[in-house]
Design a protein that fits this description.
Helices cover 40% and strands 22% of the residues. It is α+β, with helices and mostly antiparallel strands. The protein folds into 2 domains: 139 residues, Jelly Rolls; 75 residues, Arc Repressor Mutant, subunit A (Orthogonal Bundle), CATH 1.10.10.10. A 5-stranded antiparallel β-sheet has the order 1-2-9-4-7. The longest helix is centred in the middle third of the chain and has 25 residues.
Length: 240
């Protein structure tokens, strides 16, 4: 997978289209006046594979969300290897903690495929925090759900079970609170999933066959369809 950055996402920023605004989940929590204010300042950028949407050490200027495509949140270890924290599919908004504190990013956000990313200017993000009860509830739910996700990831990593790692990562990507744009069908290739998890494509394929045989999901052309979320989450904890 070629992840060499091409140009800059800043060079491809434009106002959000009506259909793109319609798919931003937190806009639905606002009053009409708050929504008009937010819609007027939301922009979108087209990220090519390898583009860094957020970079370690940079101060945030926007709160970002995925309209289309797939991003990954990662960090570089001391030995030069990359540690992936999460995939970010459509509907996911991220970095609210960093935006709230206005502190430099402690992670990179990189496009795995051609993606469309929306951004709310950080000053408008803080204005909504100060004025909108609905927006505050949305952000609180995001923080709470993300904390639970990272705790689950920590527990799964201790298992050293590849099937459980695949199940845990898929359960996270199908999270309806953090990624409402996914629904029941996640558009992802096995190579992209392998890249997110840190396993070979062959090992991911083997794990998917196991999960499919147990009725948790179905492998379809161009993606994965969840059939039993409870079963998928159960498999994420490893064998009993």
């Amino acid at each position: 997978m070629n992840l060499t950055p091409v140009g800059s996402i800043r060079d491809r920023v434009r106002p959000a289209l009506a259909e793109e605004l319609a798919n931003i989940p937190w806009l639905r929590t606002l009053t009409p006046a708050e929504r008009r204010r937010a819609e007027a300042v939301v922009v979108v950028g087209e990220a090519e594979p390898g583009d860094l949407v957020c970079r370690i050490g940079r101060s945030p200027t926007y709160w970002f969300g995925v309209v289309e495509g797939l991003l990954k949140m990662s960090n570089d270890a001391a030995d030069g290897t990359s540690m992936t924290y999460s995939g970010l599919p459509p509907g996911g908004w991220f970095g609210e903690g960093t935006a709230m504190k206005r502190e430099p990013y402690r992670y990179n956000i990189q496009a795995l495929r051609r993606s469309v990313v929306a951004g709310l200017p950080i000053d408008d993000f803080h204005w909504l925090l100060d004025h909108s009860i609905g927006f505050n509830r949305f952000v609180m739910n995001q923080l709470n759900e993300r904390l639970a996700q990272f705790i689950a990831a920590r527990e799964a990593d201790r298992l050293n079970n590849p099937d459980a790692r695949v199940a845990r990562n898929l359960a996270a990507l199908f999270n309806p609170v953090l990624f409402p744009g996914v629904g029941e069908l996640l558009r992802i290739t096995q190579q992209e999933l392998a890249y997110l998890i840190g396993l070979s494509r062959q090992r991911v394929n083997q794990a998917l066959r196991t999960l499919e045989s147990q009725g948790a999901l179905r492998v379809e052309y161009g993606g994965l369809r969840v059939l039993d979320m409870a079963a998928l989450r159960g498999m994420a904890t490893g064998p009993a």
